[in-house]
Amino acid sequence: MGRILVTGGSGYIGSHTVVALLEAGYEVVSIDDHSRSHDFIMDRIKQITGTEVVNHRINLVDRATLEDFFCNEHTGITGVIHFAAYKAVGESVANPLLYFENNLVGQINLMRCVDQYNIPHFVFSSSCTVYGNPESLPVTESSPLLEPESPYGRTKLIGEAFLRDWVLVCPTRVAALRYFNPVGAHPSALIGEFSRGVPENLLPYITQTAAGIRERLTIYGRDYPTRDGTCVRDYLHVCDVALAHVAALKHLERHTDAPPFDVFNLGSGVGQTVLEMVQAFEEVTGTPLTYTFGERRTGDVVAVYADNRKAREQLGWSTLYSLQDMLRTAWAWEQALSQSHNTRQ
Ligand code: WQD
């Protein structure tokens, strides 16, 4: 098996993917500047897999340091999985230049090094936000790419466009994975999603409300044209997202006749409303949630969920974890965080 560079290897999806790569027999090296993650994640990964993974604390925008890394470390690297990017939708609206520089300049610097060292396989972390507010559902990879709802979404759309042009003149082959809503945590509760400050995303807000950290959950809007008036999203377990990256890598390794750039939807294929997620959480965990209905949140799309046939048929991937697994592991992670926070105090 090859040696894989994971950028953002200490992050939420990155750390779960490092575990999946190690368990699939790959060797892994990580680059993560820990601006949005923590330095103890590699220790947690060792606890889970028994394998030490070295993380190099580099920001991809720092081209000289990144080039030094590749000069010293490129030997044996057969693939790059690129997660390192900021992804808070609200923050990107308030600070677009931060997102354009971090996400796009960082990606360009990485692409330069991949090209220079002839690394054959590249997996890109993209997003269902490229579909904007879709007119027909479920969305397939051929659904129109509409105006992104945020600068974050725009960096994913532009990031894909960079890669489409690049593969025409570079032998590297690319798979762009469009995530829908990854949630949950590793069953060990040793790794999961860290929220900085008040969580933007639904699941961490639900678990922090259940843990008493937040007074109540506000459901943003109940007057949408959906079955119960709240927004519809396609939630899938972060471990399923991680396994999809291994499947995409193997796809690139095996199918040299596949298109040099290709995109795949990573979704469960099932749409759940916000209210259904709240009620399912209460049922799965036996923990009642305090919630209220508030105004719609700017930038929210009404409903989006995936047609995941292409990933199933071409990557041989399908979701293994249920909605109950997502909610149960998210809650176990929150409880583990609360315990470690209490012991740290
Ligand atoms: C889900 C639903 C909210 C919080 C995410 C990521 C984005 C991208 C797509 C990967 C919406 C509602 C939320 C709350 C609520 N993923 N909500 N109260 O907006 O779909 O975007 O998935 O690239 O990076 O952010 O996810 O979890 O923020 O919201 O009612 O306190 O939950 O209105 O309908 P979203 P989300």
Description:
This protein is an alpha/beta fold. It has a domain at 3-183 and 236-267: 3-Layer(aba) Sandwich (Rossmann fold), CATH 3.40.50. 41% of the residues lie in helices and 16% in strands. It is built from 11 helices and 13 strands. The protein has helices spanning 12-23, 41-49, 63-73, 89-94, 96-116, 151-166, 202-210, 238-254, 274-285, 309-315, 323-344, and strands spanning 3-7, 27-31, 55-56, 77-82, 121-127, 173-179, 181-183, 217-220, 232-233, 235-237, 261-266, 272-273, 291-294. The strands form 4 sheets. The chain has a 7-stranded parallel β-sheet with strand order 3-2-1-4-5-6-11, sandwiched between helices. Strand 1 (3-7), helix 1 and strand 2 form a beta-alpha-beta unit. Helix 1 crosses helix 8 and helix 5 runs parallel beside helix 6. The mean pLDDT is 96. The structure holds UDP-4-deoxy-4-formamido-beta-L-arabinopyranose.
